[in-house]
Amino acid sequence: MNTCVIGLQWGDEGKGKIVDVLAEHSDIVVRYSGGANAGHTVVVGDNRFALHILPSGSVRPDTICVIANGVVVDP
Questions:
Q1: Which of 24, 30, 43, 73 is within CB 3.0–4.6 Å of 66 for a Cys-Cys bond?
Q2: Which domain holds residue 48?
């Protein structure tokens, strides 16, 4: 099964939180757009992670994360 999370507007819609919940049960998480200005915070147990470029699933040890072609990377 494939699941896609897409926001209807720009800004804080909670997409990162939804992806984090779904990533717990997913094999692969892909970030396909956005840049460093789009941040999200993920809490796993007692640990808090502030992510910008990385997909929310990157803190899950068994989840493969992919940064796709449309993501703007600012080194």
A1: 30
A2: 15-67
